[in-house]
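Entry 0007
Protein: Carbohydrate kinase
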Amino acid sequence: MATYIGIDAGTSMVKAAAFDERGRPLGVESRPVSLSLHGGHAEQDMEEVYGAVEEVLTSLTAVLDDPVELIGLTGQGDGVWLVDDQGRPVRAAISWMDGRAHELVDEWQSSGVVDSVFRRSGSAMFPGCPGPVLAWLDRHEPAALDAASAAVYCKDMVFQRLTGIRATDVSDASMPFLDPRTRAYADEVLLTLGLSHRRRLLPPISDPVAVGELPESGTRIANGPYDLPACALGAGVTAPGDGLLIVGTCLAALVAVDELDLAGEAAGLHISTDRPGHWLRAMPAMVGTAALDWVLNTTGVAHTEVNGLLEATPPGAHGVRVLPYFASSGERAPFVEPRLRAELSGVSLESTKADLIRATCEGIGFAARHCLEAAGLTGSLAICGGGTRSPAWMRLFADVLGRPLRIVEGEVGARGAVLAAAERFGVELETAVWTEPTSVVEPDAERAEFYAKAYDDHLERLAAARSRARAT
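Output (structure tokens):
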């Protein structure tokens, strides 16, 4: 029987998952990786990330009974991973969560650069995306750029180290240098950002995705789309209008589209996929489960307690409200506001930990609704990510969003990476079987009506918070 492996090099965890030919899980190996946060900077050790990939792949293949047919690779997007000719680090990787370029983004917003780039690439820049990070490095660490052979993305670094091939794909290249119409780099964007002299650092775009072999085993491997579009594939979100909500470190809302509309607000991005004429309108908010993690760590509440606490307090959390914008680089979707920060209100001496936890989960739910509305959701909605492990939170999401949720559990990104690799290698898999939802959660009509009014209040508080952020 054939076995398929998906590797997902995430921000906080690297995983390798094995599946049989019907998409049933055979095993998962995972290793945590660290994220260094200091003074608004967020960096990762490339050797640690690559070492974790080697470990999970070795450990997983050692326990499999059948030979591996192929491997699909995915990983976190954005940021800047400067490498030399061998794919080894020139400096620490700068994460998508980095905020060092926020003043530059402020400057570009005021001057119209952000809007101009969006009209060309379909992507609104934020501090942790490659455009601002490369421009910041060009100003403050030019020697690092001089020493580098390429500025790649996480999975591309891993793919080069595994196969010796340097390449990226159209999904990673989408932010912000790709022209989504031509599927090639837009030199006008580089010129607008003052980076034309650094063009040599952009990795070659392989369209369709690049393929290679592991040198020792000869196993075929494909350098698939990055984690957001990989999750869309793994959740079966391909029909125009259908959407996916990823409740992970990043709260990402994706909607499949077959037309480009670059006339709206310069926010989010249009992710090109392996299918020409098909994009994902993406609104990846900066903080998802990371916001809840901060609250849990601060209050001393364990993750295992969340489900019970959500059920211990009613909708509205007794008046406690949270604007969940905890990222040090502000927010990037469905608007760009680098100086926006989280706010907590309505707290009294009678407020409980349960109130605070529910208010945080509700705030994240409101942010998700905002993103999905901006992305243009009209069809069905799938949901995946670590947040799906809490049934109470999934019911809350269904109520806040006012629609049924197709719950897709397991290693969805790794699953999508396998499906992308199989298509690239011409291996036929039953996609509908691989992407079948685990369950469907229906909203409660009464709670949905309550949350519709609470959402309007959330938008009003958010508008006021954005005004204060701009004034700082």
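Curator remark: The chain has two domains: 3-229, 236-407+442-471. The chain has a mean pLDDT of 96.
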